[in-house]
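Practice problem: predict the structure.
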Amino acid sequence: QLEIGPVTVRRRDAPPAFAALALAGVIWGTSFVLGKVALIQLSVSHLMLYRFAFASIGFLPLLWRHRPGLRRSDWGIVVIAAVVGVPIQFLLQFEGLAHTTASHAALMIGTAPVLVAIAGFIVFHERLRITAWLALGASTLGVALIVIQTGGTASAGHAQPTLSGDMLVLASLFAAVVWILVSKRLMTHYSPIVVSGLITITGTIVLAAWVIARDGLPPTALRSGTWMAVLALGLIATTCSTVLWNWGLAHTDAGKAGAFINLEPVVGAALGVWLLHESLGSHTVLGGALIVGGALVVSLQRR
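Answer:
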């Protein structure tokens, strides 16, 4: 869930902008617990289809209002970003979530700002200070510590983290980086909301074709709690959070906005412990602190 691109920035660090960014980070953090709830009745593929179908419905009025005049030459870029950013990224991420705990998945997501920084260094030759490289090393160590903690004894009735689940979540982040880099070109010509809406809807069409051909139509006889979870994932954790993030990003520096991404793993891990009664070992706590701390340093540094 990141929207990074060269938008018009009003250099006013207004409290409403920070509030919007913080709220987006908190909402993204809830997606892991909501996913766990929905996965009780739904397969990963059907959950993703429902999530992005509702998210696409949420984006339709926004696109109608902006009336994007996309150039024909840019549609190929949209399709690439859509395929990588929706089916590949989120099927990997939630397949990983199905095989690990919400807390572990959330903490692994904390490496996203670090991976984006590395990609920026390699692809766009953006400079990184020595403190940022130390932070990258700390974040890598944090991932290793979390992986070490997998495979422990699960509490009665509760899931336990697995290496395969954690690695699938981590793999989804590489797809997210590709999605961000491809989307960045589009955001030089179109607003972030337009780009996000077009990518989401196009990706949903591709996702629907793949899911229906492979697994058939999703079930409709779901409990009310499951429907509430998929609705929240689509309309709130995808559409609303993206709008909040992009509005906040337009009113402050991108570097400062990046720090609020780190609320996602913190909130996700906390909710996993609180609502799902998951346990965090000492290695996981230390690893999570290194990941979030490293991402914070990378996000706040001035290039």
